[in-house]
Backbone:
């Protein structure tokens, strides 16, 4: 059985390839696809089959998916054009005779008003309509969305947001990658939807408290009105549209849209999800 992972040069894709190897999947049975294959030469060195796979160029997808049994379609990063990109990939998968398409979606994608959800919902509809068996991996926030910014938090003594006391079921990318690998390498996942989130949801105030505890430096959570938060993000160098999206997503967090309490992630990976304390420790270690 051959399994393929798209966007393998990205964080989640690369981790998923390594998770497959950790599960004992032979490197020769893994296809790693990337827009720029040279960026995953390290995977090729492990014996993984590296192929060009560009969502915008269907001809590359046909070659990338040839002989593939199960495919992990990792959602593209360019908000606004993802549905046609994903459609190209789904069409190529069907043409190649892929027997399962697993797709990284968003929490409760078909019912939520989370700002990023519409493209995920539309992609799920494309996959369902294709007739190919599917698994929807509805990933909650990656905890690295927060821990990657610890240097700024320590510098200013604050984590900014518009999330109020809302809880987010964030977990490390490695946990979500392990879940994807479990689906690709295992059985019984066809036509299944998994709502994936960490076992221990936390507020941003709790995140700030954990950073303070481990760093020995006071960091507080500063809750801002959405417009003010978006303005702070723009001042920090983010494009206005992206800043507005992040602020609106925080409002969704405040309203409970990122609280996932199904336990699906822990069950798929066969262990408790990684606790916030370990993620913060890893983030702080990366600063030294």
Residues:
């Amino acid at each position: 059985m051959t399994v393929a992972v798209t966007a393998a040069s990205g964080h989640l894709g690369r981790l998923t390839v390594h998770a497959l190897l950790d599960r004992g999947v032979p490197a020769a049975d893994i296809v790693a696809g990337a827009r720029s294959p040279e960026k995953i030469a390290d995977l090729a060195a492990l014996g993984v089959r590296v192929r060009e796979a560009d969502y915008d160029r269907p001809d590359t997808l046909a070659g990338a998916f040839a002989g593939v049994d199960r495919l992990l379609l990792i959602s593209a990063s360019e908000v606004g054009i993802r549905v046609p990109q994903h459609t190209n990939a789904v069409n190529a998968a069907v043409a190649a005779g892929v027997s399962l398409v697993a797709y990284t979606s968003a929490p409760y994608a078909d019912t939520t008003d989370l700002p990023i959800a519409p493209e995920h919902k539309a992609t799920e509809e494309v996959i369902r309509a294709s007739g190919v068996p599917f698994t929807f991996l509805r990933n909650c926030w990656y905890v690295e969305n927060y821990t990657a910014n610890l240097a700024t938090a320590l510098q200013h003594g604050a984590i900014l947001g518009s999330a109020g006391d809302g809880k987010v079921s964030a977990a490390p990318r490695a946990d979500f990658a392990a879940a994807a690998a479990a689906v690709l390498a295992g059985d019984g996942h066809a036509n299944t939807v998994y709502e994936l989130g960490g076992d221990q949801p936390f507020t941003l105030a709790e995140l700030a408290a954990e950073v303070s505890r481990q760093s020995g430096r006071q960091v507080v959570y500063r809750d801002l009105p959405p417009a003010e938060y978006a303005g702070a993000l723009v001042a920090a160098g983010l494009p206005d549209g992206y800043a507005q999206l992040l602020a609106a997503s925080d409002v969704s967090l405040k309203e409970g849209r990122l609280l996932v309490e199904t336990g699906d992630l822990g069950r798929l990976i066969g262990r408790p999800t990684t606790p916030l304390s370990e993620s913060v420790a890893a983030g702080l270690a990366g600063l030294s």
In short: The first strand starts at residue 3 and ends at 5. Residues 82-96 form the longest helix (15 residues). The CA atoms of residues 39 and 96 lie 25 Å apart.
